[in-house]
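User: I'm writing a tutorial on reading structure tokens. Could you give me a worked example: one chain, its sequence, then its tokens, then a sentence or two explaining what the tokens reveal?
Assistant: Sure. Here is the example chain.
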Amino acid sequence: MTKAERTRQFIVKKTAAIFNEKGYAGTSLSDLINVTGLSKGCIYGNFKNKDEIALAAFDFNKDRLSAYFENKISKIENSVERLLVYPKVLRNFLIIPIWKGGCPILNTSTEADDTHPLLKKKAASALSSWQDRIAVEIKRGIERKEIKADTHAMEVAVVMVLLIESAVMQTKVSESTSELNIAMGFLEKLIRNLEA
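And here are its predicted structure tokens:
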């Protein structure tokens, strides 16, 4: 890796949390300078503009979140138990460092839907990819006879993602986990009802 590549990686890694917490519009050049300790010239010598940094930061945040779940899921064999990782983890998302600031997909979706077409496209792609991964897991469970054969994989995947993201949003806004616990309890029942 070249020095320029290392510097770009450093900038993305350092600014990712700021973009997730403050959003694109709320993140200033001063924030980028403060969190990286680099000059404006150094930052913009490695990235064309704030847009380019924000897009890379979104990818970084999304990839970290995906890797976090994948690491936990990959240690489990049974498909139903693998799906149950989502509500188990999310009951505690407020105290998990990777979730500081909330879900990057949700945060970006709500901010960029009308204001930033490139970030909106990335968020839509991330949601679609997440739903696809869940649907693949459900199909795996059907093949392994762990999940009922008549389960509509994509329907369940879409409902799971919608339930998760809306519960995270409400928890962030209300700063209360009571609704989150209700939603994750419901999600656990939904997943358990898939069992063959």
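What the tokens reveal: The domain at 58-192 is CATH 1.10.357.10 (Tetracycline Repressor; domain 2). The first helix runs from residue 3 to 26.
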